[in-house]
């Protein structure tokens, strides 16, 4: 058992040299010879393949410093300082063998020996594979190191030769410098004398050079010559020769200055040439104040000529160019010229200080105001169009061109004046679009009037109210969207003035939202309400269908359209202004009140139409001498027909509404009211002479306990409420007309027949049929009170007449 100790070597070779590694590889090769092949292993090839993979994973874990437990995500295994750990750094074979002898039986010791031999062979095979795979790299590294040693030896030899050559060159350079020292000093002196002679030659040739430059027109070159020699001639003017040169140069310079002034005063050249003339005159010592005045005077002449050209384009005879072309002409001509003048003035006369700057600012302010007046005149001619794209482009170029003179002449305030013009034009465009929306709304109303009148004139069916309402609503909304898109161009990012505070705040909130959108909605409500202000002859000229359509339009605005329009406006124009604006709820309340007034006026107008028929039918008939009734009067049939037409008309725009529970047979109920014993007792001819007094008393007592009817109660936004209001007005008119007449027996019976006929058809239009019962009961009762011989008709006869009618 103890003799097996030699089979437990260390897992790694003790030698650290590559020779030891090679020996290990050779031993591993010998161990894996055909004599001890895979067949010798107890497990065979199938068992060694997974073991090799496990060993490869073990080498990776050793490389990354992980134990098996850590690699598997479990807590670490045994203590790394344990001497019995085969994979630990402190492994002790003696201790490990002692532990095995104490703890393991013989069979387990044999299995451990077999397993260890198999692991050693696998490790040897892995080491051999590793050496074979990296053998070429080892050889290449060795060759590279050998070549580097040879190259460094050659480089050291070359550096030594270079140092020797540099020392020789330094010695030669020192000997040459010592030899040429005297000659160098002489050459320096001669070079100084040569330069001085050249300067003297230039001075002696200066008069002739100046004369030649003046003759050739090279005024700039002549001034530069004079500037170079002036200091020397001034310094040595006590010498006769230099004094003569100076006198000649002054004569030539005076003639040069005269020619420059003449050229400057002629003004035939452009602004750069005139600025050059002024610059040369200043270099010749001419007075700056006088040149400044002449410079501005000449500049004024050129700029005024540009202004006259712009004013000629605005004349009545030639056709004025479009606004974009006009602003381009003004920007390239006047504004460009003003920029050149300002830049040249500041460059030439900067020595004058604040006084000169104020003079230039006053000059620019005066001419700029004239230019702005011409621009405003041209912009005023564009207020009639509906498209803002060309106008906004023109304003953008106008504002953009004035940035440069605004920066050069901040004291003149040109940029602020240009911004004010743009803001003023924007306000005018908002007012123009508001007028356009109002005109579009009035045009829609005119179209509706024509469409409503066309069927009556031509005798053909026209569009329905629902279609007309949809056309008006869509037309108005499209005009509003077009106006918003047109004014939104003023706030586009590519426009130069869109970042101004006015266009980021007040223009969006007070201009577009309040002035344009809110102003138009309120104007539309006021226009609609104007149809309700004159209910007389003027109000009668308004078609009732138009009143109904406008009321529904205002109601739709209150429910959805106003909120949609204002939301669309707020999304397109991001308001950065904190000024108060009109809440949506306020506008919705105004629109709802307008719709209510229009619907109430519609009820009054339609009630007035039916009331006029009833009033004339009562007033034009002789009720005392009328014949016994055989049928329903035609006017009652007309009332029912008109009420049915109104019901259809209102039903096109408004919902049905809520009704009270109807009786099983309202017509029979009405008939029973008229044929009750109380009514027969009231009309019985057996009353004593005091019977009329008793009848009045009974009628008055009945009125005390009956429900009061409010004829002009508020109208709800539904069909039942509208028809109820119209019928109440009509029946109340009938009641009042009956009270003014006296009836005979047959007249009373005719009223009884007519009222029963109305009850047969009108109860279905109202919210509560009891209302029709009460009003018609009052009509019959009033007729009976005004009848000397109140004998009612038999109920069956009344029913037959009404069914036949």
Keywords:
805 residues, mainly alpha, Methane Monooxygenase Hydroxylase, Chain G, domain 1, 29 helices, 0% strand, disordered N terminus
Structure description:
The protein is mainly alpha-helical and 805 residues long. Among the domains are: 228-389, no CATH class; 429-453 and 463-582; 608-656 and 711-804, Methane Monooxygenase Hydroxylase, Chain G, domain 1, CATH 1.20.58. It has 29 helices and no strands. The longest helix is centred in the first third of the chain and has 82 residues, at 135-216. The radius of gyration is 59 Å and the shape is flat. Mean pLDDT is 77; it is low at 1-47, 68-76, 536-540 and 666-695.
Largest sheet: none
- Segments where pLDDT lies below 50 for 5+ residues? 1-47, 68-76, 536-540, 666-695
If you average the pLDDT, what whole number results?
Answer: 77
Broad shape: flat
> Beta fraction of the residues?
under 5%
Region (Disordered): 23-54
Main location: Golgi
GO biological process, one term: protein targeting
Organism: Saimiri boliviensis boliviensis (Bolivian squirrel monkey)
């Amino acid at each position: 058992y103890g003799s097996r100790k030699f089979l437990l070597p260390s897992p790694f070779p003790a030698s650290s040299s590559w020779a030891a590694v090679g020996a290990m590889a050779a031993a591993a090769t010998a161990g894996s010879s055909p004599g001890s092949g895979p067949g010798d292993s107890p497990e065979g090839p199938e068992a060694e393949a997974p073991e090799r993979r496990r060993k490869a994973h073990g080498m990776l874990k050793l490389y990354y410093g992980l134990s098996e437990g850590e690699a598997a995500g479990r807590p670490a295994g045994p203590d790394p300082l344990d001497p019995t750990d085969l994979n630990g750094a402190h492994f002790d074979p003696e201790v490990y063998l002692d532990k095995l002898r104490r703890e393991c039986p013989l069979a387990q010791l044999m299995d451990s020996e077999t397993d260890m031999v198999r692991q050693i062979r696998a490790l040897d095979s892995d080491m051999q594979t590793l050496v074979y795979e990296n053998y070429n790299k080892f050889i290449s590294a060795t060759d590279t190191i050998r070549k580097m040693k040879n190259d460094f030896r050659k480089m050291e030899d070359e550096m030594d030769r270079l140092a020797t050559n540099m020392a020789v060159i330094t010695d030669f350079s020192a000997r040459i410098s010592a030899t040429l020292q005297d000659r160098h000093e002489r050459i320096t002196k001669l070079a100084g004398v040569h330069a001085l002679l050249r300067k003297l030659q230039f001075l002696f040739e200066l008069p002739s050079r100046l004369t030649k430059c003046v003759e050739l027109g090279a005024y700039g070159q002549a001034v530069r010559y004079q500037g170079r020699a002036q200091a020397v001639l001034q310094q040595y003017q006590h010498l006769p020769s230099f004094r003569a040169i100076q006198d000649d140069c002054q004569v030539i310079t005076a003639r040069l200055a005269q020619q420059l002034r003449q050229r400057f005063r002629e003004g035939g050249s452009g602004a750069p040439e005139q600025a050059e003339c002024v610059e040369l005159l200043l270099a010749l010592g001419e007075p700056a104040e006088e040149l400044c005045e002449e410079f501005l005077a000449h500049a004024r002449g050129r700029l005024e000529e540009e202004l006259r050209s712009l004013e000629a384009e605005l004349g009545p005879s030639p056709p004025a160019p479009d606004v974009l072309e006009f602003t381009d002409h003004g920007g390239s001509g006047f504004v460009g010229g003003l920029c050149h003048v300002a830049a040249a003035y500041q460059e030439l006369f900067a020595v004058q200080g604040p006084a000169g700057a104020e003079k230039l600012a006053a000059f620019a302010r005066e001419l700029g105001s004239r230019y702005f007046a011409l621009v405003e005149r041209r912009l005023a001619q564009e207020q009639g169009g509906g498209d803002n794209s060309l106008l906004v482009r023109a304003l953008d170029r106008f504002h953009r061109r004035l940035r440069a003179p605004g920066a050069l002449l901040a004291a003149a305030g040109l940029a602020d004046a240009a911004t004010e013009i743009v803001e003023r034009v924007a306000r005018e465009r908002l007012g123009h679009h508001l007028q356009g929306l109002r005109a579009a709304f009035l045009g829609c109303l005119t179209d509706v009037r024509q469409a409503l009148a066309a069927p009556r004139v031509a005798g053909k069916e026209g569009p329905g109210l629902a279609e007309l309402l949809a056309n008006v609503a869509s037309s108005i909304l499209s005009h509003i969207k077009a106006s918003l898109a047109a004014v939104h161009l003023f706030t586009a990012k590519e426009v130069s003035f869109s970042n101004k505070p006015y266009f980021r705040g007040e223009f969006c909130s007070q201009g577009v939202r309040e002035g344009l959108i809110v102003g138009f909605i309120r104007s539309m409500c006021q226009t609609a309400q104007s149809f309700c202000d004159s209910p007389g002859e003027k109000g009668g000229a308004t078609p009732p269908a138009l009143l109904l359509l406008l009321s529904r339009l205002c109601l739709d605005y209150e429910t959805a359209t106003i909120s949609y329009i204002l939301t669309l406006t707020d999304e397109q124009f991001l308001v950065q202004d904190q000024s108060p604006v009109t809440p949506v709820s306020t506008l919705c309340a105004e629109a709802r009140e307008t719709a209510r007034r229009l619907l109430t006026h519609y009820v009054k107008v339609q009630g007035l139409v039916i009331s006029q028929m009833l009033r004339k039918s009562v007033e034009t008939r002789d009720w005392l001498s009328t014949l016994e009734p055989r049928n329903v009067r035609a006017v009652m049939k007309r009332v029912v027909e008109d009420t049915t037409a109104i019901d259809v008309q209102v039903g096109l725009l408004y919902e049905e509404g809520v009704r009270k529970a109807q009786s099983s047979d309202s017509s029979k109920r009405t008939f029973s009211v008229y044929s009750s014993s109380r009514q027969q007792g009231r009309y019985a001819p057996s009353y004593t002479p005091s019977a009329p007094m008793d009848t009045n008393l009974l009628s008055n007592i009945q009125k005390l306990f009956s429900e009061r009817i409010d004829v002009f109660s508020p109208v709800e936004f539904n069909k039942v409420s509208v028809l109820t209001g119209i019928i109440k007005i009509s029946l109340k008119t009938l009641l009042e007309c009956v009270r003014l007449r006296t009836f005979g027996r047959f007249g009373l019976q005719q009223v009884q027949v007519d009222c029963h006929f109305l009850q047969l058809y009108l109860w279905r239009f109202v919210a509560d049929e009891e209302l029709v019962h009460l009003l018609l009961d009052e009509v019959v009762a009033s007729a009976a009170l005004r009848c000397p011989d109140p004998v009612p008709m038999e109920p069956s006869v009344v029913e037959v007449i009404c069914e036949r009618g």
